Structures are given as C-alpha cells and as structure tokens.
Task: inverse folding
C-alpha cells in the first residue's frame, strides 16, 4: 500500500510539472529529458507512469479538462452567480494554461486530443441543458448550446491571441451571448420549459429584462407561481 501511495504521489508530481511545462510551450517544444532532470527523476519514470511523452501530454490535457469540470461541480448558489463564476474559472484556465486550453478546443487535427475535448464538451452541454430546463435537452436547445460553446471558445482564443479587449469585456460578451442563446432557443422552440433557476436569474437582472421580450414559457412559469 505504501508503495502504491508513493507511486501515485510521484505520478501526481510529474503531472503537475507537466501542466506547467505544457502550459506555455507546444508539445514539440517540451523535452521530457529536461523536465525529468528539473524534477530530479529519471526520464524513464515518465514512460513508466504515462507510457512516454505522448501519453504524458494527453494526461496533461485531460487533467486540465477534469480540473475545470470538478470546479464547476463544486459551485453552489444562485444560477447567475454560478454562471459568472464558471466563466471566470474557464478564463482562469485559459490564462494559466493557454497551450493546453488551445489544444483542447482548437487542435482538431489531433484525433486523441479532439476526443478528450469533445467528451468534456458533451458533458458540459448536458449539464447546461439540465440547468436551463431542469431536464434533458431538445434538439433545438442542443444545437443552440453547441453554438454558444463554439462562440465562447472562439472569443476566448481571440482574446488570448490579440489582447484587443479586456477580460471583463470577454466575460460580459460570454454572459450576454449565453442568455441570448437561451432566449432565442425558447423562441425557436416554444416547447422548451425554462427551469425556475433561469427564470429567477433573468427576472433579477434589469438589463436582461429590458434587452429581451420575456418569452411565453417564462411567463407561464412565473404565472404558475402566483
């Protein structure tokens, strides 16, 4: 048992170092020999735990996605507050590990990285659909959420590459696009019933109320509470 624990600790240490190394440099720019030397371990230990540089890199990309998802699951509080904190967590990851972030959402030529990104993207799509409706999504809502995620990924990449706008502006654009997406989906598919969490979030924000016509499904939900 002690040996297994030491092995897991060594693996975790390597993974942490790998995330730092791959956060600023591309895959081909990272030397496993140099990385192992900086940690005072044999380069073979990376092959032992991860099967080589390729497996190590994929583990680093997966770890970044898992950490983001884990932080989302731990969030509590009103829907709008959780959404804002979720966006900030996403932006934190993009700033802290830009190379891993870009690999997850833009490296479509790498089938294995693409599979990792799509797995977590499907999980996030489902979670957002449940948050929005309280149940599974409809085809219209799934399409709308997919488009919204593509917008989010694209604007964050633009921000990282150009720094033309501030982080605060990026956050505001993401939040505005999300609510526009939700309300547009409801207009396109009146059968979508918004969850009370979403209704409360919109009703609590005067800018959202003034920017959009309240859809019928929201009116029905609010009316049922009277």
Result:
């Amino acid at each position: 048992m002690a040996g297994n624990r030491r092995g897991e600790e060594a693996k975790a240490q390597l993974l942490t170092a790998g995330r730092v190394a791959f956060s600023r440099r591309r895959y081909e720019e990272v030397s496993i020999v140099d990385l192992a030397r900086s940690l005072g371990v044999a380069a073979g230990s990376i092959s032992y735990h991860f099967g080589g540089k390729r497996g190590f890199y994929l583990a680093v990309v997966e770890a970044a996605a898992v950490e983001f998802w884990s932080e989302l699951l731990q969030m509590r509080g009103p829907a709008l507050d959780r959404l804002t904190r979720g966006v900030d967590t996403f932006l934190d990851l993009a700033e802290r590990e830009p190379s891993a972030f870009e690999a997850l959402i833009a490296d479509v030529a790498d089938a294995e990285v693409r599979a990792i990104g799509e797995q977590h993207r499907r999980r996030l799509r489902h979670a957002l659909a449940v948050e929005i409706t309280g149940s599974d999504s409809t085809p219209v809502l799934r399409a709308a959420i997919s488009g919204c995620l593509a917008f989010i990924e694209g604007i964050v990449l633009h921000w990282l590459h150009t720094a033309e706008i501030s982080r605060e502006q990026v956050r505001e654009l993401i939040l505005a696009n999300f609510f526009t997406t939700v309300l547009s989906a409801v207009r396109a598919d009146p059968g979508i019933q918004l969850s009370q969490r979403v209704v409360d979030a919109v009703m609590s924000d005067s800018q959202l109320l003034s920017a959009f016509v309240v859809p019928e499904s929201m009116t029905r939900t609010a009316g049922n509470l009277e």
Notes: Residues 222-226 have pLDDT under 50 and may be disordered. The domain at 60-224 is CATH 1.10.357.10 (Tetracycline Repressor; domain 2). The CA atoms of residues 37 and 43 lie 7 Å apart. Residues 139-162 form the longest helix (24 residues).
